[in-house]
Fold:
Amino acid sequence: MKNKELFNEKMKLVGELTLRIIIYYIVAIIFYIVVLDGFLGNFLGNTLYKLNYDLYYWCINSKEAIFVLYTLVILIVALYRFFSKKVDNIEKLYKSFDSILNEDSQNIELNNEMTKFSEKLNQIKYEYILNIKRAKEAEQKKNDLIMYMAHDLKTPLTSVIGYLSLLNEEKEISKCLQNKYIKIALDKSLRLEEFTNQFFEITRYNLKDMPINKTNIDLVTLLKQLIEEFYPMLEDRHLKLDINKPNNLIYNADGDKLARAFGNLLKNAINYSYENTVIEITMIENEENIEIIFKNEGRTIPKYKLERIFDKFYRGDEARQTNNGGTGLGLAITKEIVELHNGTIYAKSNNETIEFEIRLNK
Structure:
């Protein structure tokens, strides 16, 4: 198809040149016969006769040669004007290449003879700008993924440090409790290793296509196991947990991903709770969905800041500027994981309470 179009363009160019030469010749011959040899013939002859008789005599005897020379000049003029115009078009086309690299929305405009070229150049420019945009988005996604993974590395690392600190500080700890803390620290270390491996494979997936492996899991058991990991952090800030839950709550989900989401909410509640207060976790099973509510006592977050609290890298609450504040990614991660499970998450804050509610559709 492209070869056919190229052949048609060549034939069009040849036809245009041929037509132009024919037109020039017709006009030139008419001008020669009617004007030079007709109206002005006697005048030019008499003038030349007076100026130079020998030249006049040569012209009279060389009319055919003069006519051939005249037609050659007309041919040269026609070719010059034709190719001069094409060279100008090529120069304009060449200059238009620079505008392709300009990341603006202004179209490349050429004359009517080069409409197809301008359309093709505008298409190339559009694809170039689109590719630049995609490259920037890909780079940003890559950076976001690195930040996300770095954030996720913190949670198991905090647990490992917390339990090892307990083992180091509590000299009279029982053997049973000691083994328990060692096991949890080991589990978290293995989890940390898993995250590290994912970190090195970070370019193999993006957040929007995060793989989910769903199985039937007990959310109550998942939450219990999660709470054990945060025991050192709760003890350090003198916080207590009040859990309202059914005996079991089976849900088809990716346990690792939901554990990450719940862990981010629990860590958030611990970091931004007043000391010596109670964190409430409520799990409710409805006919259409499951509700998981994390509620803690802390500084009230204004409404306008709540609207952005799930944005990546946002740390609008003054409490988040402290050393406890992270990168502003934990809640963004939680929101994406919940949405990957076709769920929703809401935040509200008033009267020095902060509440996050997850609704998972059945």
User: Anything to note?
Assistant: The mean pLDDT is 76. The chain has eleven helices and seven strands. The CA atoms of residues 85 and 228 lie 82 Å apart.
